[in-house]
Write a structure and sequence with these properties.
The complex is a heterodimer of chains A (about 280) and B (about 325). With about 280 residues, chain A is an all-alpha fold. Chain A is built from ten helices and no strands. Chain A folds into two domains: about 40 residues; about 230 residues, MetI-like (MetI-like fold), CATH 1.10.3720. Chain B has about 325 residues and is mostly helical. In chain B, helix 2 packs across helix 13 and helix 10 runs antiparallel to helix 13.
Chain lengths: ~280, ~325
């Protein structure tokens, strides 16, 4: 009798500890978001979004150069990375038995686990070292390489959800394979592929390490992809580790902007993907 | 059929069945485009390995394997050794796992076995949001919020409580191995949690039912039946977390103090492989310095590939082919 009470007690104790773990695990999220809003929101102003930085140590100025830089660098990364990732993803889903599929999937897993700083060194050795100057393009190349495995995986998973009967119906109606793939299979999964791509964009938009020695960062508004360019994560890094109080405030504000963009993209994409999964069973 | 409804297509060959002809042609082009996309992925990886290796060639030729064991890092004399970096990478990652693993396993087990249905998804979703926060934001928060808290209350408490251990002795700076380990723990937690949750969910319900039918309490059912069944998958999740921690750059660079030293105390600053690359790459002038940094990147790449491959193997053993853990979080 006593033993049973003890066993039930232990069970309850462990459940209690696990509830504690949930609370501790959730604390950092709320703490980080709370601090970002409290410390960052005050510096958000019209000037913050429209002006380039003030000289060091002076109040005012903005981060328009970094916002434009991030848009350009990530945009070019999408142009390079999305077609490769989506094409490879369709290949893996449409030709599941082929040896190339196995190899591509395996390599995508390897790339997915590769630290982003290593990809940065790669882009540096490939583009910056041969051109002998830093460039936004090298940063885009690094981000594109980070996007490929993520886009590939989500594209493949999404296409696998398409029931085979749809494919068979199209083929039975006399559609050639490529039209079946494009206008039936890819067409039905298009929303899934788009959200997968958004998820990848959200991930690379916050990347700093691969940009450190490729895009390098700058204090000026620039549209030239062949030159160093600012980016929001780089700006957060420079301002946070810099000596001035005004810089620290701008770092919080820039981080708030960055996290808003990243969270809106990734939460939106996740909710959309979840709804798709539910629709398909 | 198409020729009959579309009179304005005179180029079509009347003898051969037109749709068949066109389809095989289109199919070939379609497959060619997809194959190009698929092939470019392994080609890019091979190119990456080649570039890293050729960047590191100079240092590999000069230092060889002694690079891993030497502790000298002197850009002026062009003498480089990565031992303190490897040490710092391992220690900070192990601290992270020591904190993150019990927490994430607790959360994962609670969410799959005990939690009310209504809160399972939302809690898992919130914790997975931690993985979406950019590394540099963790760094910022670490510098201005976490480190002041640690320096004022947590570190002195640890020193007075556990000061008999060499790990918790010596002066308190703030930026330190322990601070980096704690921020890494927060960053790694969502990965370990979500993969081990998926592994636990893959355990067949009959296992639980059998155990409960034999009179086990719910906790006993979990610890004697469910967890052993998922053991290798959970180990895989932990190693996957290790892989993340080893390569994490920005937050660690901002919190670890960046000093080429090996100290017994966790309150002392250190350095990791990733953060030395982040800090010194743009400032390196000598070719040998650059090459040594590329060598570090090459080593880091090799280590993370091995760690990740091991993790995936373990996860596959529990949930064969279900794609757990390979999804981009």
């Amino acid at each position: 009798m006593n033993r049973r009470v003890l066993r039930r007690g232990i069970s309850n104790l462990m459940v209690g500890l696990m509830v504690g773990a949930v609370i501790v695990a959730l604390l950092p999220l709320f703490f980080i978001l709370f601090n970002l809003v409290v410390k960052g929101a005050g510096s958000l102003s019209w000037a913050f979004f429209t002006k380039t930085p003030a000289p060091a140590g002076e109040v005012g100025g903005g981060v328009v150069h970094a916002i434009v830089g991030t848009l350009l660098i990530v945009g070019v990364a999408c142009v390079i990375g999305l077609p490769i990732g989506i094409a490879a993803g369709i290949y893996c889903a449409e030709y599941p038995g082929s040896r190339l599929t196995w190899l591509t999937r395996f390599v995508a897993d390897v790339l997915n686990g590769t630290p982003s700083i290593v990809v940065g060194v790669f882009a540096w050795a490939w583009i910056v070292a041969t051109q002998k100057h830093f460039s936004a393009l090298a940063g885009s190349a690094a981000l594109a390489l980070l996007m490929v495995p993520m886009v590939l995986r989500t594209t493949e998973e999404m296409i696998k959800l398409v029931p085979n009967s749809l494919r068979e119906a199209a083929l039975a109606l006399g559609y050639p394979r490529w039209r079946t793939s494009l206008s039936i299979v890819v067409r039905t999964t298009l929303p899934g592929i788009v959200t997968g791509s958004l998820l990848a964009v959200a991930r690379v938009a916050g990347e700093t390490a691969p940009l450190l020695f490729t895009a390098l960062g700058s204090q000026y508004l620039s549209f030239n992809l062949n030159q160093p360019m600012a980016a929001l994560p780089l700006t957060v890094f420079t301002y946070a580790t810099g000596p001035y109080e005004e810089w620290h405030q701008n770092a919080w504000a820039a981080a708030l902007v960055l996290i808003l963009v990243v969270l809106i993209l990734s939460v939106g994409a996740r909710l959309a993907i979840r709804r798709r999964f539910e629709l398909n069973g | 059929m198409a020729t009959a409804t579309l009179p304005d297509s005179p180029t079509r060959d009347a003898a051969a069945p037109p749709s068949l002809e066109r389809s095989s042609y289109g199919d070939r082009i379609f497959k060619l485009i997809l194959t190009l996309g698929a092939i470019s992925v392994p080609v890019l990886l091979a190119f990456l390995v080649y570039q890293l290796w050729s960047g590191a060639r100079l240092a590999i030729g000069k230092f060889g394997f002694s690079f891993v064991t030497s502790s000298i890092w002197d850009p002026v004399q062009e003498q480089f050794g990565a031992f303190p970096l490897i040490f710092g990478t391992l220690v900070s990652s192990l601290i992270a796992l020591a904190i993150a693993v019990p927490l994430s396993l607790g959360v994962a087990i609670y969410l799959t076995e005990f939690a009310p249905k209504a809160i399972r998804q939302p809690v898992a979703f919130l914790i997975s949001l931690l993985a979406a926060i950019p590394s540099v934001v963790y760094g910022l928060w670490g510098i201005f919020v976490l480190i002041p808290i640690l320096r004022k209350s947590v570190f002195p408490l640890l020193r007075s409580g556990l000061g008999f251990l060499p790990l918790f002795q010596g002066p308190i700076y703030g930026p330190s191995m322990l601070a980096a380990g704690i921020i890494l723990a927060i960053m790694v937690m969502p990965y370990v949690m979500s993969v081990s949750r998926e592994v636990l969910m893959a355990v067949p319900n009959t296992q639980r039912e059998a155990s409960l039918a034999l009179g086990a309490t719910r906790w006993e059912a979990v610890i004697t039946t469910v967890v052993p069944y998922a053991r290798s998958g959970i180990l895989g999740a932990i190693i996957l977390g290790l892989g993340r921690a080893l390569g994490e750059t920005m937050a660690v660079t901002m919190l670890i103090g960046n000093r080429h030293e090996i100290a017994a105390s966790l309150f002392a600053p250190g350095y990791t492989m990733a953060s030395v690359i982040a800090n010194e790459f743009t400032e390196a002038v000598g070719d040998m310095h650059l090459s040594a940094l590329a060598y570090v990147a090459f080593l880091l790449f090799v280590v993370t590939v091995i760690v990740n491959a091991g993790a995936r193997l373990l996860i596959w053993r529990v949930a064969r082919g279900s794609g757990i853990g390979s999804k981009a979080l």
